[in-house]
Amino acid sequence: MGSVDGVTIFEQCDNDAWTQRLAVIYDELMIKKVLKPNDYDWVQTTLLVDWMMPTNQRTILVLNLPEPQQLALQSRLQYMNRLNPFTWHMEFASVVIRLYDESIWSLRDLARDKENPPPPKFPHLHDIGRHIFHSTETLEVAENTLLNLLAEQNRWRVEFPESHSNLRSVYLPTQQRLHFLAKEMHGLKTRSRSLTERLHNEINLAFNLVSQRYGRDAQSDSAMMKTVGVVSLVYLPGTFVSGLFGTNFFDFSPGDKSPFSTANSFWMYWAVTIPLTLATVLVWVLWHYRLLIYKMRREGWRALRRQGTGEINY
């Protein structure tokens, strides 16, 4: 018993009695149906063909195929040549591939909605990306399944020539149809990968738009701070003057000969205020440019050491 991706082949042959039994399982084709970014469902369908060659008896089992596809498959049976067991798989794939096509187009519609304004929601973008990854994975498995069906039909022709010696008109159309379905599945897979790239482009664009919005907000905040600074500069002189004349160094009491008098110790205000202001500015400069000052001092020490040792820089 050999197993490949999506298809399992079981063969039993007794040449003496010429009893041959061929069982082909089209196993667990999975399609993801996405209605909304957070609303999806899985379709998992299986086809089993059990063929007894000497008696030409066949047992066909189809599991979990949606009703519309069941009706489509039944309508195709009356025109199907049933002498080739792989024809069942070809017809089954022809019906199921429509589910893949619908799945890809539903994902395309979701991605297209996010490409249009207003700005997309990031959780929905990531949900859609996850669905597209799953879709690409299932399409790759389905394409591999069709290619393996082609390989198994060719092996059947080589290993059991007596079972189809006069059936060239049976297996040749089936082979051509399987080739066509494999190419169509490859096209769907390419479309799914294209959707992935489009979604990545939309996510990058959304991030850039958000960054630009944050940049504009930062510029707006900076402009507001400048406005506050200008307003402070406008009111600061008046505040300083009112604070200065509100001290005990000045006397505006009525009844004096002069409108106001100044204390003899007024110089103490300037003696304290000016050094304190300069010290405050100096501390701020040293803290703000501390790295530059440290770098300049280090370069100066290196220059002094080179002069002391007589080193020459080329």
Automatic annotation (TrEMBL):
GO molecular function annotation: cobalt ion binding; cobalt ion transmembrane transporter activity; magnesium ion binding; magnesium ion transmembrane transporter activity
Membrane topology category: Multi-pass membrane protein
Any one cellular-component term (Gene Ontology): plasma membrane
Lineage top rank: taxon: Eukaryota
Keyword terms, alphabetized: Membrane, Transmembrane, Transmembrane helix
Alphabetized InterPro entries for the sequence: CorA_TM1_TM2, MgTranspt_CorA/ZnTranspt_ZntB
Subcellular location: Cell membrane
Signal peptide start-end: none
Bilayer-crossing regions: 223-246, 266-287
Record's protein name: CorA metal ion transporter
Annotated organism of origin: Aspergillus tanneri
Lineage, highest ranks first: Eukaryota, Fungi, Dikarya, Ascomycota, Pezizomycotina
